Structure formats: structure tokens, C-alpha cells
Amino acid sequence: MSDESTPWMRLLRELFGDDAELALEELRRMGMDPEALAASSGLSASPAMMEHVLGQIRSLVTQSAGEDVNWALAHDVARGVAAQGGDPSVSAAQANAHRAAVSRAELWLDAVTDFDPTRLEPRIWSRAEWVEATLPTWRTLAGPVAVSVSRALGGLLEGSSDLEDTPGGIDASGLIRSVSPTVCGMHMGQAAGEMATEAFGATDLGIPLLAEARVVMIPSAIAEFAQGLDIDEDEVRTFLALREAAHVRLFGAAPWLPGQLHTLIERYSRGITIDLDALEEAVRDAGLGDPARLQQALNRGIFASHHTEEQTATLESIETLLALIEGWVDDVTMRAGAPHLPDIGALREMMRRRRAAGGPAEDTFANLLDLELRPRRMRDASAMWAAVHARIGHEGRDGVWSHPDLLPSSEDLGNWEAWVAAYVARGEGDDVDRELERLLGSDDA
């Protein structure tokens, strides 16, 4: 590490001059190995990205005030992680194949729902493009808890570090202040980058990650997913296009829905409390120089284990809403694709299990927010939507989304057969009332 050609050493030499070696000793005493952190996030493989990150760290160390989370670093780390293993630009042939799949999906969906398709052109993105487009939403949803973790970690480090005994007498306060924003920025970027390697589109979690209602497909992730299946890749592509397009139609037809989901998650995020004893123990055991154990230290083990009543209620609302969204998409996708896709039954079951068990995307969100975005009672919700369709058709089924008060509660979903009967009966009663009003109105005339 003393080699002057090492980027980290050049930075330390710039910041501390002849005390650079002592600064490095202080970093190691704190357990922070810059090279290991860079390697774990994929930065060391890209000299240009490494230099950019060094510039961010230079800014943090030389300035007395900074952000609680280094979001610029989060962006760069996410790009680096997403690029691991290769992230080639989407070819014209790939883009055409995926746009054709979206076109088929939209045509088939027209037959099973009156919800209109988005007017925006579909986007066929590389993983890096997915990161660029979705990171603002990640920052909004996960930002509050990331700030809480950063402040707790910063207070812990400043409280436990003996600045008076710093080797060589150099002032390490700048280094200490830079650690928590840097570590939390890397943690956020690592999570977003990992999700980018698995995402098929912008609605995998049942949450819209874009500010606009637009269909997105990621060819590299879809191709990797299809490789493990004994199903034609074009059929897999079209099935995933159906799911993505169905989500987008729902979010566009119920404009209150994305906002309500985001509000619930932000409320949950702000209510998370940090277990300081667990954080101190985790950091002490892991040390800041072991990236793998540091990721574990900043994951769910540091969150308070007991939720308040408000947190519990918010979590239940999120889970129920996600189940209703997933159930509707499942029912609509099955109806739209069944006449055309021979293996849709197997694909449907595979996706159900993936969502119920929690894939990489769900695990990533759980690590960031101690929040399992798993649509519990998903099968119940799908059965409920199918029953509503059987009773009053797709127009009546989709009408439930016209207002949030019409949706079943968590308790209703637990007894969905009774809810369907009551909802249909209420609708029939409304029809009778309207007919009476019409007749009475004509008599008065």
C-alpha cells in the first residue's frame, strides 16, 4: 500500500503530505482497508471510476461538512456492481425483439382489461441505464433509514475513537467524519447494483421505480433467467413483458396507487430505529476493513427488533397492497397469455414461488429497510380477483381500483370469499337503486 502508484496512497499523500503513512495506519487501526472496499464494489476494475470515487472521498475528507450519505458514491458503486460480469449496450436486434414482445403483450392485454396501455415508448435498457433511471426512487424510499444508519455509525465512531492518541498526532477527525457517509453510500450503491443485476424491468417488486408509467425491459437479465429454463426464450420474454405491461397499466389507471405505496414505504423507513448496541457490536466484530462482514453489520441485525403499533400497521398495509397488486397482475397475465403461451402455467408458478420466497430484489430491500416486500396472501389475492372476474367481468374487477377505499383490507383478504360476495351484492344493489331512480325520474317527467 505504500507504493506511490497506488491510487489510495496518492490520495493520502495529497491530503496529509509526509503524514500519509500515519494516516494509513489510522485507517487500518479503525479497520478500514480501502483496497478491499474498492475490490468488493467492483471499483478497482475501472481506473476511471476509481479516480472519480477518490475525488468524492477527497471532497468528504477536506470539507468539514458533508451529506450524511454520499449519494454520488452510491451512484458510482451501483454502476460498478451492475457492470460486474459485463454489461454490454443493448443491440438493435435485442431492442427489436423486446419491443416486439411488448407489442404482443399489449395486444393480448387489450382483450382482458380496459386499462389503457401507456402512451410512452417502451425502454430496453442495459443494467447501467436501469441504475441511472431508478436510483432517484431508491434515494427517496431508502434515504431516511440510510441517513439514520449513517448518523448512528458516525456517532459511534467519533465516540469510540481516541483522537488524542492518533499515530503521529495527525488530526483524524476528517477521516472519521468521512467513514460513515462513505460506508453508507457504498452500502446503498451495492444494494442498488445487486438489484440491477436481477431486475427484468422497473416493476419487479410491485413498486414503480420510475416517476413515469413506462414499460422497461432488461435483456441481459431476461436472457440469463431464460437460460436456466427448458422454455423457449421468446416465450419467457413475452411472459415477462406481459407482467411488466400489466403493472404499468395498473399504475397508470390508478394514479393514486404509486403515491400511496411510496408514502407507506417512506413512513415505514422514517419510523425505523437503530439498535445502537447491536450496531456497536457488529462494527467491533466485523471491522470496517472486511466488506462482506460490514455489509452484514449494516443489514437487518442493526435494526430494533420490535415495531411500534404504527410500524406494524404500516407494514401490514404495504404487504396487503402488494398482494393485491401481484394478485391482479397474476390473474390478468394468465388470462392474456394462456391462449398464446404453451408454458405459461409453469412460468406463472415459477414467478409465484420466486415472489413468495423472496428473490434477490426482495432480499436487497430487506437488507436496506428491514422490510420484506413479499406479497403475503398473493395466491389468495389472485383467487379473489379471479372470483370477482367470474361474477362481474373484467370491467367490474378493474373498477375496484378506482378508489383506495374500495380495496379489501388485510382482514378482508383473509376471508376473501365473503368479501367478494359482499362487494358483488353491493354492486347489484347499486344497479337496482340506479334503475329505480331512472324509473322514478321518468315518471316525474
Give a nutshell description of this structure:
With 445 residues, the chain is an all-alpha fold. It has helices at 7-16, 20-29, 34-40, 47-62, 71-83, 92-110, 127-160, 173-196, 219-227, 233-253, 256-270, 276-286, 291-297, 309-337, 344-357, 360-369, 378-399, 410-414, 416-444; strands at 123-124, 216-217. Mean pLDDT is 80; it is low at 162-172.
Uncertain spans: 162-172
Average residue pLDDT? 80
Q: What is the CA-CA span between the terminal residues?
A: 94 Å
Rg, Cα atoms, Å: 26 Å
Secondary-structure element order, as H and E?
Answer: HHHHHHEHHEHHHHHHHHHHH
Give a quick account of the main beta sheet: strands, pairing sense, barrel closure: 2 strands, parallel
As a percent range, the share of strand residues is under 5%
In the residues, how many domains can be counted?
Answer: 2
Structural class: mainly alpha
* Overall 3D shape: globular
Largest beta sheet: strand ordering: 1-2
DSSP summary: helix tally:
19
The percentage helix is 55-70%
Secondary structure: elements and pairs:
Blueprint: H1 7-16, H2 20-29, H3 34-40, H4 47-62, H5 71-83, H6 92-110, E1 123-124, H7 127-160, H8 173-196, E2 216-217, H9 219-227, H10 233-253, H11 256-270, H12 276-286, H13 291-297, H14 309-337, H15 344-357, H16 360-369, H17 378-399, H18 410-414, H19 416-444
Parallel strand pairs: 1-2
Helix pairs in contact: 1-2, 1-4, 4-5, 4-8, 5-7, 5-8, 6-10, 6-14, 7-8, 7-11, 8-16, 9-10, 10-14, 11-14, 12-13, 14-17, 17-19
